[in-house]
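Handout, page 2. Input:
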Amino acid sequence: MDSLRTEEEQVAALKQFWKDYGSAILLGVVLSLGGVYGWKAWKNHQVEQAQLSSGLYQDMLDLTLQNAGRPLTAEQQASFDNLMETLKADYKDTVYMQMSALLKAGKAVEANKLDVARDELEWVLLQKPDHNIDIIARLRLARVLLALPGSDIKANAEEALELLNQIDQYGAFKASYENVRGDVLLALGRHDDARDAYQRSVDIATEAGESRPLVSLKLDDLTKAKGK
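Output:
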């Protein structure tokens, strides 16, 4: 602008500049404002989705706690299934849907519906869940595979071992991981490896100030069997 000699020249230059670039500038401003408000709307939507889905999950959790350790009654099962279908229909991509699938798998195990439990746990893994849910699903699915009736035990154990081998960071689940791994190795006839896994599970639990009496029993049985 400093090179222009008169105000008229400056005005003419501004008019030409606006003619050439004004539409693009307005579009950029509109898109910028739209992006800001769009982001806020999306965030608000995400918060609302999380609140609604967490409420449905809490209702499902309450139902399972009413019959902790036992199968649901027919009435409770109907309510549970209805809540589950609502989550799947409206909140499939939320973490609460994954946690609800874990709940359903647990109740299916209690009702001895292992095929249902397997399907739910496999679904959870297909969702690429966060690390903790991924570990829980893999440990539970490994146990279910070992317990499936009328199937190839060795093939199921090998599948379970592959599931466990894909866990690279154990966190607070290390003792549980070694326990389940011991069960899988035992099913494969690898008794020495199973005993080592059980021993690691007991040691890790002891270091954390916990006890694993069932793991200790399995370890004792393997140790006695080796000594015979």
